């Protein structure tokens, strides 16, 4: 029995990106710093606008989350007080103590895994290379949280 061999076209992304300047500009490993691509004012505007949007969204989500948690806690207290639910406080205390012990155990082993450490190092390098963009983002984020 003869095996028919299908011919497949393989897309070589390295070769593809060499022929596409816009693709190379966006995804090229040498594109590292935004300081090479944009002037200071553009970096500040981009960082400020994205930071403000992020801060504004965080503020709105934070208020919604706080309202939901507070409202849920309030409803649980009313239900407990009126007798709809019964809370086993000894069980809650035991679970909280168990959680405290777990936190102490994990914080005593203060070592980061190599994968996490390498990611943190990558982020620090990116932030150092793009310090103007990072500063604009931080300022915009604070303004977004305040508005």
TrEMBL record:
CC per GO annotation: mitochondrial outer membrane; nucleus
Primary localization: mitochondrion
Keywords for the protein's UniProt record, in alphabetical order: Membrane, Mitochondrion, Mitochondrion outer membrane, Nucleus, Phosphoprotein, Transcription, Transcription regulation, Transmembrane, Transmembrane helix
InterPro entries from the UniProt entry: FUN14 (IPR007014)
Protein's cellular compartments: Mitochondrion outer membrane; Nucleus
Recorded topology in the membrane: Multi-pass membrane protein
Domain of life: Eukaryota
The keyword Kinase appears for this protein: no
GO biological process assignments: autophagy of mitochondrion
Task performed by this protein: Binds directly and specifically 1,2-Diacyl-sn-glycero-3-phospho-(1'-myo-inositol-3',4',5'-bisphosphate) (PIP3) leading to the recruitment of PIP3 to mitochondria and may play a role in the regulation of the platelet activation via AKT/GSK3B/cGMP signaling pathways. May act as transcription factor that regulates SREBP1 (isoform SREBP-1C) expression in order to modulate triglyceride (TG) homeostasis in hepatocytes.
Family: Belongs to the FUN14 family.
Protein name: FUN14 domain-containing protein 2
Organism whose genome encodes this protein: Oceanites oceanicus
